[in-house]
Write a structure and sequence with these properties.
With 292 residues, the protein is α+β, with helices and mostly antiparallel strands. It contains 7 helices and 16 strands. The chain has helices at 71-78, 118-123, 136-150, 158-164, 172-187, 207-210, 281-285, and strands at 5-13, 16-21, 26-28, 34-39, 94-102, 105-112, 127-134, 197-198, 204-205, 218-222, 230-239, 242-247, 250-255, 263-265, 272-273, 277-279. The strands form 2 sheets. Strands 1, 2, 3, 4, 10, 11, 12, 13, 14, 15 and 16 form an 11-stranded mixed β-sheet that branches. Strands 5, 6, 7, 8 and 9 form a 5-stranded antiparallel β-sheet that branches. The radius of gyration is 20 Å and the shape is globular.
Length: 292
């Protein structure tokens, strides 16, 4: 029987995206590489625990969950989380940013300065600019101010992001335009916390990093993994947690968050997919629903 590994998720480093496994092993993901794996036969997806601790009951979790945590571990994970707004005393400096994922999709967010642009890569931001730098609570207040004043959200669903990836504006200038316009509006607002240092607009574009130039439209998305199922395809793009794989049926998107909690085994020479998939919203948009 092949040795099984447990995936702890996709991470972005200076060298690009890597899949990380229990024990610290890493698998680099370069475009053109064959990504192939199976799920242990009769395997059960188990909770990944919280904050570095294993789930005490090794609870089973649904295959479609992107969090891979049971209710109790999810609660514990949120109990000490900047994203969930449950930390108020973090002494580290934080940056406020504007991120763009496609036409009409700009969001505001914060990230620890020491993380650099990792948070933006993890979210699949096509381009972004910093807005401010300062203490956590000042950054949080600015985030709330900007959400209300600019009418931009702090979250954008992944389904919305995926639906436009193959139809993004061709030039970096076009992609940067909405970020630049919102940045100009933001720095002119009253009410910024005095302890937050405003940052100039310098748009960083990730199209090349992600492999989005000339990206074929996706025909489907993996909806969940199942015991005994397998996935195989050539990597054409990696965006946030998503892998765009060229398979026999066309480009299929795999959200690597669906891999956590499963026992993963090598897939041999098989090609294609034997896991459940759903039609992508990107494919649905291209379907003609009228004669003329």
């Amino acid at each position: 029987m092949a040795q099984a590994w447990k995936c702890t998720g996709l991470r972005w480093s200076a060298d690009g995206p890597v899949l990380v496994w229990d024990g610290g092993r890493r698998s680099g993901l370069t475009r053109g590489k064959r990504v192939a794996f199976g799920v242990a036969d009769r395997g059960v997806r188990t909770c990944v625990g919280a904050r570095g601790h294993v789930c005490p009951v090794r609870a089973a979790v649904p295959g479609r969950s992107t969090g891979a945590r049971c209710e109790e571990c999810a609660r514990l994970d949120r109990a000490h989380s900047v994203a969930a707004d449950t930390i108020a005393d973090d002494p580290r400096p934080y940056r406020v940013y504007l991120a763009w994922f496609g036409p009409g999709m700009v969001k505001v967010g914060i990230t620890a300065e020491e993380r650099g642009s990792a948070r933006l890569l993890e979210q699949g931001a096509v381009c972004f600019s910093w807005l401010g730098l300062g203490p956590l609570m000042a950054a949080r207040r600015s985030e709330e101010l900007l959400r209300a004043a600019l009418r931009v959200p702090d979250r954008i669903p992944y389904a919305d992001k995926r639906a436009v990836r193959s139809r993004l504006p061709a030039s970096a200038a076009e992609r940067a335009a909405e970020v630049e316009a919102q940045h100009e509006r933001a720095v002119g607002l009253a009410g910024w916390p005095e302890s937050l240092e405003r940052q100039p607009c310098r748009v960083v574009d990730h199209v090349g990093v992600f492999g989005l130039e000339g990206l074929p439209g996706a025909v489907a998305e993996v909806s969940e993994l199942v015991g005994g199922g397998w996935v195989s395809g050539e990597l054409v793009a990696a965006v946030g947690p998503d892998l765009h794989l060229d398979t026999a049926r066309g480009v299929v998107v795999l959200d690597t968050r669906l891999m956590t909690g499963w026992e993963i085994v090598p897939a041999g020479e098989e090609r294609g997919l034997t896991v459940p998939v759903r039609e992508s919203r990107e494919a649905a948009v291209g379907v003609q629903d009228e004669l003329f």
